User: Fold Scaffolding protein from Stenotrophomonas maltophilia.
Amino acid sequence: MSDENNALEQGGGEAVAATQPKNDAEAATQEQAATQEAEKAKEAEAKKAEEEASKRRNRTSQYIDGLKNRASAAERENAEMRKRIEAIESRFPKQEAKPPTMETAGYDPEELARQTARYEVQQARQQWEEQQKSESAARSEQEKVQAYIHRAQAFTSQNPDFEEVVGSIPQQFLIPELQKAVIAHERGPEIAYRLAQNEDELFQLATTRPELIDWAVARFASRLDAAPPQQEAEPAPPAFAPTPTNKPISQAPAPAPRVSGRAPTETPPEKLTDDDWYRRDREQRRKR
Assistant:
């Protein structure tokens, strides 16, 4: 037995010696190889993490580009709509203010000069106001889009599948009025996310009249936080409350039957039903 133990110990010693470095140089080589392998593993993990982060950034940038493209498409559609309206209005000229004439001034040169000055000021002011309105509308739309993009990025951090879910909305439902209403709402990303998951609500909003779309979107947003109605639970009975069936049992003897000289009122046979008549007849036969 001792020989076997010695043999095992010697064999184990050879195995251990095979894995241990023979000298300092070999130990340094093994340590360097282990360090390189650890560094390669770290680099592989870092590269994988960077690729995943790059994919997320790409998805976010693609979604943002999609928003910008949709906003640009909406602006182009609005521009085309304005052109159509202008073309229709051109068929019915407006009664615009006409420049003053000697006839309108009563053939008074001084009055004509005053009317001409007022007319030129009014025209210049009108042009300036129209330009300001156009620029203000463009700035407002751009600010809304930028604000929506920031809100979408914040919402994506909590819902990583936001771009994928919203990107699945069919194009036929993305009407310009609905997009503008969702982008302008402070909870726009959440609204878009929920609509993408609810085809019925999406269809209803997409088919809503344009003049009611803002109200419809706000109404849908107000229902996002509405909790489902809960039924009030019935209060539990006290632990030691007596149940309705546990009535106290009286120990007194049953009362003696009362004997009355009058017979109970009997129903005339003609007023009895068939079942009652049969029951009475059987009872009478039994008493005989």
Notes: The two ends are 112 Å apart (CA to CA). Confidence is low (pLDDT under 50) at residues 6-18, 229-233. Residues 178 and 213 are 6 Å apart (CA to CA).
